[in-house]
Amino acid sequence: MKLALLALTLVVAACNPILSVESPAPPGRSARMDEVKNFWGLQYYRMELSTGVALALTCTAPSPCEHMKVVSDDPAIVEVRLASLGVLQKNPWGQSSQQTSAALVVVGKAAGRTTVRVTSKDGDRDIHITVIPSPS
Questions:
Q1: Domain 2-132 fold
Q2: What does R_g of the chain's alpha carbons equal in angstroms?
Q3: What is the residue extent of each domain of the chain?
């Protein structure tokens, strides 16, 4: 029974989408995202962002995420929007077909901490975000 539960946990964890950073930080500002893992694999993402910085991300699972929604727990600290990056990604199941990438943009509005929740047909991911003040 324990082995079956372990196998189910690994399968479910492996199905959640993967987020990738698609834009660099502007000079003199901070914009980075790291994976936070444990024994079971990827748990969530940790992001640090300067105020006023926008960071573009794509969502794949392994093809572009479908029916993606994004919500910020505190929109006064971080604003999130679905985006179109104009990039086509190959569908791994049909080598000749391509899809528009599923993308979102995260904008640091005010210093503080919050969480952004990404949900899709393919699973869920959380991004724990710290927005730091811009250098003066």
A1: Immunoglobulin-like (2.60.40)
A2: 16
A3: 2-132
| Distance of alpha carbon 40 from alpha carbon 78, whole angstroms | 29
Tens of each residue's pLDDT in the chain, 136 residues: 555 444 444 444 456 899 999 999 889 898 999 999 988 889 999 999 999 999 999 998 877 888 999 999 999 999 999 988 766 666 665 555 666 778 999 999 999 999 999 999 989 999 999 999 987 6
Helix, strand, coil share of the chain (percent; to 5): 10, 55, 35
Tokens of 80: 């999130």
The DSSP bridge pattern shows strands 78-83 and 102-108 to be antiparallel
Rounded Cα gap, residues 85 and 40, in angstroms: 32
Residue 94, CA distances (Å) to 40, 63, 65 in order: 29, 10, 15
- Closest-CA residue to 58 (of 19, 25, 99, 107): 19
